[in-house]
Amino acid sequence: MKTATEVPVADDGHKGWIPLLELATREVFEMMLGSQLSAAQDITEANLDITSMVGLAGQLCGMLSLRCTQKLAALMASKMLGTDPDAMGPELADACGEVCNMVAGNFKNKISGLNDGCMLSVPTVVTGKDYNLRSLADYPALEVQLALEGRPIIVTLEIHS
Amino acid sequence: MNSIRALIVDDSTVMRKIVERSLGQAGIKLTEVFEAGNGAEALAVLQENRVDLVLCDINMPVMDGLEFIKQLASVENAKGVPVVMITTEGSESHVVQALSSGARGYIRKPFTLEQIRERVIPILAGQS
């Protein structure tokens, strides 16, 4: 795992953090799922029917979310548990929440000075597609689009302050 | 190294299974594994059972990992049992707080098998 990197809080809406968000996500999948993520573009968001969220509070306030399909969530859970993806039950949401939690923790550990001053909430997981999420973010969301075995994952960081 | 009895404390069932599997993959033989979803459940498990190692998350509902370590001293069965924290909270203040409260080691999630080997095996072998 790479160590903390000095990233200035710039006036560009923290766009400099996008590579760190991507790295934090890739590392979690490599270390905990034994899987390499590939780049993805033009993901059809309407198909993503499971969302896990972790809140950040303190020096950095906001929310990190991870969206994918329930099929991919089952694949993630099966890779974490070493079991059959078709046999997944409640572990599916648990696995998604934990992955989101680890991405958030790994991300904040990479930003110098943030680690001690930022706390994470326990994860929340929403299933289904028919909902609106309204954020009170002060900056444009930072988004990373990746794929696991061709199935898309979107990681988004909404920054409040 | 002898086979051990371990208690894994994490509010995520998936994470408890990953930690158990990782201990095995790191070469640590397990005779028996107890699980608890928070610090209070872990204290209850330790009232009834003797273990050789506790692996504990920090952020948990009901009773978090730091409070669990503080209360561990009052459990007769748990005296001298090493506790290793495994958590996404990697802040220096959490590490200092955990170690000063009696934790013997600290592992950040996500973790590698090498980190499990480096930080857990010496503790079990009495080297740390």
Offer a quick outline of the entry.
Chain A has 161 residues and is α+β, with helices and mostly antiparallel strands. Chain A is 29% helix and 25% strand. Chain B has one domain (4-124): Response regulator (Rossmann fold, 3-Layer(aba) Sandwich).
Q: What features would you describe in this structure?
A:
- The complex is a heterodimer of chains A (161) and B (128).
- Chain A has 161 residues and is an alpha+beta fold.
- Chain A has a single domain, classed as Chemotaxis protein chec (3-Layer(aba) Sandwich).
- Chain A is 29% helix and 25% strand.
- Chain A contains 3 helices and 7 strands.
- In chain A, strands 1, 2, 3, 4, 5, 6 and 7 form a 7-stranded antiparallel sheet that branches.
- In chain A, strand 2 (50-58) and strand 3 form a beta hairpin.
- The longest helix of chain A is centred in the middle third of the chain and has 19 residues, at 91-109.
- Chain A starts with 17 loop residues before the first helix and ends with a strand.
- Chain B has 128 residues and is α/β, with parallel strands linked by helices.
- Chain B has one domain (4-124): Response regulator (Rossmann fold, 3-Layer(aba) Sandwich).
- In chain B, strands 2-1-3-4-5 form a 5-stranded parallel sheet, sandwiched between helices.
- In chain B, strand 1 (4-9), helix 1 and strand 2 form a beta-alpha-beta unit.
- In chain B, helix 2 (39-48) packs parallel to helix 3.
- The longest helix of chain B has 13 residues, at 13-25.
- At the A-B interface, helix 1, helix 2 and helix 3 of A face helix 1 of B.
